[in-house]
């Protein structure tokens, strides 16, 4: 794309930006503790860590390998939406309800709106390949370019530039931190100068720190310089001087240490993989003697995060997350979340910690007690489907209304009811399913709210539903829940469903198309069902259940109290049968790294299972080979000899000998991938002739390619040729996609956006002063907005829907007219054209 959105443009930027066209902000949007969610795009050292502190429990999890980000509800584990970003060297940082994504490969930064899930126009604070770091604060988004030493302070919603500051030419990794308000601190990697960037300008404290061994972090929102060689942590004051300090008990020469931001106290946390310990320094008292033995000496540890006074430490060696209680000074849990050797990231939201494997579909949720719930971000065998939740669209071209958290999320614990129990408010403003006092047969769907009043809608929208035996029940009384699909003709069936994973809102999970569940406490619960279909796609449904402490009231009048005869009253309290274990299975084919060939391997994960005492797990992979287990380990892997669909069965046995089983169908397909490179993909008005090259795609045997162009024209293929040329004749944003099929039935899809710039004119293009010109977009696109600048130092027009603007030049010269445009889909660009103004015409006579 030619040009940038307000970065380095040679015109005066106007103060007033475009009116927000999106829906109102999510109720979940709250302030981020400054500096806690800085992310380095394209950092090859491992999975980057993000730590934000929000009052809600939804987190954006990035999947760079398929070019998208997923919004996951921490209460239910449901994937609320998936937003396509396109391939690139992506890293994300959450800013309130939004996700800010930096792409080092393209030198761009974009924002995913937390209310509408739309992707903003990209800003370009760097050239392709220059590492970018994003630091959201309360009111400013800082974008640091480590190559040029430039820091861009941008509006956190529009991404427009407020000011650009120059720091050192080298900003080291770990040497930049936000100060909690509107400023940014940075270390000069050569001189040790400490610079501060803020609205009032840049201040520099010369030779303030040891640049080779000092890291900047935040403690309770204040910047702290931690010198690992000197063993000292110092709070940075507003003037750049030293404030409260503490010793840091690091060993000389320990290269495995990692400094952790502290969100809730004026402390500094340091982990050491070499020693296997967590060190705690208190800035308020100056002491550093406290330590927690993590029991992992010699292990490779990742970047830890703090959540509600507990530190979550990723152990890459074992695939575990170590949960350390900072108050008691002990490790309370070490759940296994991913296979050993996996590099993954942690993100903190409220009282919930998320883990994410950026290179695969695997993710999950860790509660404060170490309980783990696995999340499948997408269907690894078919990334374009909606595994685990609705697939969000980044613009109108998606053709579907993005799912909001109100559709699938809700309380995961009991909510104390008032006189009339009602569900708690969802995290968005969209209305949720409201229970009634009558019986129910149909629950709420993923897309529409269905009344729980005993009536089936006359024209129910097609989709997934939950049938429930009653909308309310007493504590400990079981209800039956049934996952079904409603066809376009209104017919209800579960024939196309292969498996269903249930969450009951009380921390329990289950599996099976039809299940029974009882709740132990009164309250209102959101029940969710993640449904996998026979064609390999997934969907979801949810409904609300009300549990009361007493029996539901009897309908109709009652004049005589009824009680059992004395002889019928039990003489001993009834015994409560022990709860059976609950089996929860997540199985998928392993994803190879790019260019690698791997066996037909499937990984099975029983992390979400529950039961009494120590559990034993048995995995049957459905191909006639011996089962794996019973074993204490919650994961197992298996190599298949041939492709196909196999039933993977998990049996969980608890300490009492009770068992529960769940089965899931897994499609085992040959490893392959589709890739498409389009050139040119922007920067031209119609006609734009683009060449698509899919020769980097992989698969088994001969590959066939089918190209679709997104403009309503006919597809090309299938063909064995990996390239095609297509001409776009109208302005707009188009998705050019390729479908690759191989000799054994493997099918892979990828796409790339093509942006065709608008056609525009400036008339007249020359003349004597004063010269009035009219700039006009020919064939304006629906929903597009435009911002005009005229290059003579006067303010631009500001964003407007009108495709025309006029301006009068009063002095001779050559001026550059700017047209900045943004399509309704989010694509943007800048075009320029020159106007020549001569001296005033000579007076007649």
TrEMBL record:
Task: Output one GO MF annotation.
Answer: monoatomic cation channel activity
Biased-composition ranges, Gly residues, are: 386-398
Give the compositionally biased regions (Pro residues): 414-424, 562-576
- Tell me the leader sequence span: none
Q: Which PROSITE patterns match?
A: PKD (PS50093)
**Would you say which domain of life the source belongs to?**
Bacteria
Biased-composition ranges, Polar residues, are 430-448
Principal localization reads: membrane
Compositionally biased, Low complexity: which spans? 550-561
Region (Disordered) spans which residues? 380-448, 550-580, 678-697
Q: What keywords are assigned to this protein? A: Membrane, Repeat, Transmembrane, Transmembrane helix
Q: Where is the PKD domain?
A: 502-554, 609-668, 697-756, 763-838
**Pfam annotation, one family:** PKD_4
GO CC annotations on file? plasma membrane
The subcellular localization recorded is: Membrane
A single GO BP: carbohydrate metabolic process
Q: Does the keyword Transmembrane helix apply?
A: yes
Q: Could you tell me the membrane topology recorded for this protein?
A: Multi-pass membrane protein
What protein am I looking at? PKD domain containing protein
């Amino acid at each position: 794309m030619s040009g940038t959105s307000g970065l380095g443009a040679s015109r005066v930027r106007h103060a007033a930006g475009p009116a927000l066209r999106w829906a109102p902000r999510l109720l979940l949007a709250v302030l981020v503790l400054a500096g806690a969610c800085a992310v380095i795009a394209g950092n090859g050292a491992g999975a980057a860590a993000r730590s934000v502190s929000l009052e809600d429990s939804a987190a954006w999890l990035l999947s760079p390998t398929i070019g998208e980000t997923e919004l996951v509800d921490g209460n239910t584990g449901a994937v609320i939406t998936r937003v396509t970003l396109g391939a690139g060297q992506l890293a994300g940082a959450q800013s309130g309800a939004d996700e800010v994504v930096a792409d080092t490969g393209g030198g761009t930064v974009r924002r995913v709106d937390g209310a509408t899930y739309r992707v903003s126009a990209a800003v370009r604070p760097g050239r392709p390949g220059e590492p970018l770091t994003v630091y959201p604060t309360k009111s400013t988004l800082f974008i640091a370019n480590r190559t040029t030493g430039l820091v861009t302070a941008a509006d956190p919603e529009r991404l427009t530039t407020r000011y650009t500051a120059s720091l050192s030419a080298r900003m080291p990794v770990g040497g930049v931190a936000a100060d909690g308000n509107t400023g940014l601190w940075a270390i000069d990697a050569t001189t040790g100068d400490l610079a501060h960037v803020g609205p009032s300008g840049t201040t520099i404290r010369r030779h303030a720190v040891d640049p080779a061994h000092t890291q900047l972090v935040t403690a309770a929102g204040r910047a702290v310089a931690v010198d690992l060689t000197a063993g000292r942590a110092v709070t940075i004051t507003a003037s750049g001087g030293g404030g409260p300090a503490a010793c840091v008990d690091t060993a000389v020469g320990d290269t495995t240490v990692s400094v952790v931001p502290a969100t809730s106290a004026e402390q500094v946390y340091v982990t050491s993989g070499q020693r296997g310990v967590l060190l705690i320094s208190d800035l308020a008292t100056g002491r550093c003697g406290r330590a927690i033995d993590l029991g992992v000496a010699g292990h490779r540890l990742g970047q830890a995060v703090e959540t509600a006074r507990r530190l979550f430490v990723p152990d890459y060696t074992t695939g575990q997350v170590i949960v350390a209680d900072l108050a008691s000074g002990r490790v309370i849990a070490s759940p296994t979340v991913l296979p050993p050797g996996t590099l993954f990231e942690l993100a903190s939201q409220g009282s919930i910690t998320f883990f994410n494997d950026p290179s695969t579909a695997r993710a999950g949720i860790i509660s404060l007690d170490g309980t783990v719930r696995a999340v499948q971000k997408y269907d690894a065998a078919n990334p374009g489907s909606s595994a685990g939740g609705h697939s969000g669209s980044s613009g109108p071209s998606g053709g579907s209304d993005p799912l909001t958290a109100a559709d699938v999320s809700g309380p995961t614990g009991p909510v104390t009811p008032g006189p009339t129990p009602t569900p708690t408010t969802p995290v968005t403003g969209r209305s949720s399913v409201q229970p009634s006092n009558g019986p129910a047969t149909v629950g709420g769907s993923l897309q529409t709210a269905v009344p729980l009043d005993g009536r089936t809608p006359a024209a129910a929208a097609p989709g997934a539903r939950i049938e429930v035996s009653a909308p309310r029940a007493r504590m400990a009384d079981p209800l039956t829940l049934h996952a079904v699909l409603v066809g376009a003709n209104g017919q209800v069936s579960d024939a196309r469903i292969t498996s269903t994973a249930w969450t009951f809102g009380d921390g329990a999970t289950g599996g099976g198309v039809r299940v029974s569940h009882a709740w132990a406490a009164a309250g209102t619960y959101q029940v969710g069902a993640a449904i996998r279909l026979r064609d390999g796609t997934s969907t979801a449904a949810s409904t609300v259940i009300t549990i009361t402490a007493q029996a539901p009231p009897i309908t109709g009048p009652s004049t005589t109290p009824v009680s059992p005869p004395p002889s019928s009253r039990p003489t001993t309290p009834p015994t409560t049968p022990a709860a059976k274990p609950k089996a929860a299975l997540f199985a998928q084919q392993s994803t190879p790294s790019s260019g690698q060939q791997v066996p037909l391997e499937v990984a099975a994960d029983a992390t979400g299972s529950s039961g009494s005492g120590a559990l034993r797990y048995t995995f049957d992979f459905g191909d006639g080979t011996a089962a794996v287990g019973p074993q204490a380990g919650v994961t197992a892997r298996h190599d298949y000899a041939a492709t196909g669909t196999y039933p993977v069965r998990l049996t969980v046995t608890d300490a009492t000998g009770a068992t529960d089983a769940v089965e899931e169908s897994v499609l085992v397909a040959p490893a392959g991938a589709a890739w498409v490179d389009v050139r040119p993909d922007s920067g031209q008005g119609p006609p734009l002739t683009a060449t698509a090259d899919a020769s980097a795609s992989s698969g088994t045997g001969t590959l066939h390619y089918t190209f679709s162009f997104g403009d309503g024209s006919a597809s090309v293929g299938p063909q064995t040729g990996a390239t095609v040329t297509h001409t776009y004749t109208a302005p707009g944003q188009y998705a050019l996609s390729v479908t690759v099929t191989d000799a054994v039935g493997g099918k892979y899809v990828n796409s790339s956006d093509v942006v065709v710039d608008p056609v525009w004119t400036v008339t007249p293009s020359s003349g004597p002063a004063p010269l009035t010109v009219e700039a006009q977009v020919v064939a304006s696109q629906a929903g597009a907005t435009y911002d005009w600048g005229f290059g003579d130092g006067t303010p631009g027009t500001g964003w407007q829907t009108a495709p025309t603007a006029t301006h009068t030049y009063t002095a001779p010269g050559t001026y550059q007219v700017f047209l900045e445009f943004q399509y309704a889909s989010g694509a943007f660009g800048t075009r320029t054209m020159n106007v020549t103004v001569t001296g005033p015409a000579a007076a007649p006579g």
